[in-house]
Write a structure and sequence with these properties.
There is one protein chain. This protein is about 30% helix and about 20% strand. It is of the alpha/beta class. The strands form five sheets. It has an eight-stranded parallel beta barrel with strand order 3-4-9-10-11-14-17-18, surrounded by six helices. It has a two-stranded antiparallel ribbon with strand order 1-2. Strands 7-8 form a two-stranded antiparallel sheet. Helix 1 packs antiparallel against helix 2, helix 1 runs antiparallel to helix 13 and helix 12 packs across helix 13. It is globular. It starts with a strand and ends with a helix.
Length: about 425
């Protein structure tokens, strides 16, 4: 089914949905008016290629992580102000059983704990997903102790000026923030929660899932239409949750690196398969989840998938006769910024065929994280994925994702 609509109408509708676009619309009115007389109508699809035909979601990945330290209330609040539909906390547990937002149980890279002499003796080694890590771990701290720490920016190319300012938030504080900011803005803000390394937490006697569901129930988040989505890389965690909640669940799908010659995702431990599969002796890889059979299996316990971007749009480099990748941008290093996006796979189409939504990760603005054919424009990457029908994007730069979606909606007549 298709509908016919004129260009001026497209901009008018978009400006109503996105007020900040009204200035753009006003500036173009004169030109549009002269062009509209006798213009050929534009034929546009009646619905978007997402699973439900609605605009794709913008998910504030760890908040607005491109601008503030990950997983802080300030980062989440900024993402909301920039227009995020959901904010995304990764959950780990404290020694006394509280759920807090950190990217990993190992808090060395995301807090100032290494500069706290009083906690020097807490440095230790722990095995996470079969890999021995050294550092400081949330599970060795009480909530009160963690609250004395401050978050830092883990990526060296990002603004460090907010380091040491913000404490580690609890899940309840994040839910309260989403509710209060939503009320202030007159819209519902969703919370997209990841159970982080659930096997590790279960091994140390701090099972995440029951604690998580109990807190969500306090806030009335128990139904499929609740503004909450739960995600995990581990299938066992999601299956455990499926038996106990109607909330939407998403299976995350990881990879370890890229093969720029073949355009395929490489798979090496611990990013080769869900760790619960490793523990159970199952030899299938993450990539098997994206076959029709794998998607059908996921559909038995989850509502969607969260694949790494190159599973959807493969990335390939150009190689010379000697087999060396060509430095297209001539910056002296042949790397990610010198590869080009290839023809998309069938992941989105096959997932939709299985009734699964697709939320791709992670979209970032840094030039070195953009394929060469995007020419340094992060919106070009978003537009490619929006056009493919992804149902949502995890973004470190909410404002860019929202602006690209606005442009996409204009393009599609909404």
């Amino acid at each position: 089914m298709f509908k016919t609509i004129r260009t001026k109408t497209l901009l008018g509708r978009a400006s109503m949905a996105f007020p900040w676009l009204r200035l753009m619309v006003a500036l173009g009115t004169a030109a549009l008016a002269s062009a509209s007389h006798g213009a050929t109508p534009v034929t546009l699809p009646a619905s978007l290629p997402t699973l439900d035909g609605k605009p794709p979601l913008v998910i504030g990945h760890r908040g607005a992580a491109g601008y503030r330290p990950d997983h802080t209330l300030e980062s989440y609040a900024l993402a909301i102000r920039m227009g995020a539909d959901f904010i995304e906390p990764d959950l780990v547990a404290t020694k006394d059983g509280y759920l807090v937002a950190r990217h990993e149980p190992n808090i060395t890279a995301t807090t100032d704990v290494a500069r706290r002499p009083g906690f020097a003796s807490r440095k230790t080694q722990r095995r996470i997903d079969g890999i021995v890590e050294e550092g400081w771990f949330a599970t060795d701290f009480t909530l009160a102790e963690l609250k004395t720490l401050r978050a830092i920016q883990p990526m060296v190319e990002r603004d460090p000026s907010f380091n040491g300012q913000y404490p580690i938030p609890t899940l309840r504080e994040i839910l309260d923030l989403a509710r209060s900011e939503g009320a202030r803005g007159g819209r519902v803000i969703g919370v997209y929660v990841e159970t982080k390394h659930p096997t590790f937490h279960e091994d140390v006697g701090l099972k995440l899932e029951d604690r998580l569901l109990a807190i969500l129930a306090e806030y009335g988040h128990t139904r499929k239409d609740s503004p909450v989505i739960l995600q995990s890389f581990e299938t066992a965690s999601l299956k455990y949750l499926r038996a106990r909640t109607q909330l939407r669940l998403v299976q995350l799908i990881d990879g370890s690196d890229y093969d720029f010659k073949t355009g395929t995702v490489t798979l090496a431990a611990p990013f080769d398969r869900p760790y619960d599969w490793t523990r159970a002796g199952r030899q299938d890889l993450f990539s098997s989840m994206l076959t029709p059979a794998g998607l059908a299996e996921i559909a038995q316990y989850a509502d969607g998938i969260g694949p790494w971007k190159p599973y959807i749009v493969p990335l390939k480099g150009n190689f010379d006769a000697a087999g060396k990748m060509i430095d297209l941008n001539q910056d002296g290093v042949a790397d990610y910024a010198d590869v080009a996006s290839s023809a998309p796979t069938r992941v989105v189409a096959d997932a939709h065929q299985a009734g699964l939504m697709v939320h791709a990760y992670t979209f970032r603005n840094e030039h070195r994280r953009l394929a060469f054919d995007y020419q340094g424009d992060p919106q070009a990457e978003y537009l490619q994925f929006y056009r493919l029908g992804v149902d949502g994007v995890f973004s470190d730069y909410t404002d860019t994702a929202v602006a690209a979606r606005a442009a996409y909606l204009i393009e599609t007549g909404r």
